[in-house]
Amino acid sequence: HANAIEMARHLDDDASPKSGRAAFVDAFRSAIRKLARTPAALLVPPVLGLDQSSASCAELERAAGKPVRELLALPPSPPGDRLQRALSAGAQKRGVNVVDAHVTSASPYGNGAGVPKVSSVVVEAPGMRVEVKPKAVVLAGGRWFAGGLVRDGDAREPLLGLPVVDDGFIVGDSFIGDHLGPFPDSEHHGIFRAGLAVDDALRPFDAGGNGAFDNVHCAGSIVGGWDPARDGTGGAVAALTDEL
To answer: pTM score, two decimals?
Structure first.
């Protein structure tokens, strides 16, 4: 199989005793029997199906007589695909219009009487350009690898130009070495904790430490002050800030 998605799709096949899942379960059972010691639990590659992962996992648990769980993987990832489809289905069921596109620009609005708001955002995809006028905007684009933060001269959030902060200091165009520890395993790699500074309502601050936009909120790893890899809380913080 070319990738994990293809193998997971193969394991959805349970039409016959010689199906992909049946062959996988037989091989799994045989491998367990050859082990010198019986494990308390088993972690398997993330390939247990796209539409019938629960059934695949249950069959493996019956074959092993032990708890079985999937590992995670970088894209293309079957667990990620299942989660994305579940979120999309849940949103649509609740009447949310899901637009698969990129936000290319945003228009702030301020009358000088208070904190500005974002009055509209433009989303684009091949053959489509739509202007949306939201009541609120949630920035949940992740950090450097995901593109929620960029560093092309100045470190910033690319949509609204919000400053990236490392332990209270704006990163800007400073030397990257100033935000790294002396050794690879150092706890002082501030750049891995860098992100947007926010208030108690998760609204971002501007470079002066003031509220940047009244109707913009941040969620997930774009919020600074924590290191998802070292803290081990990436998914939990993302879920908590999304709920807030």
So the answer is: 0.73
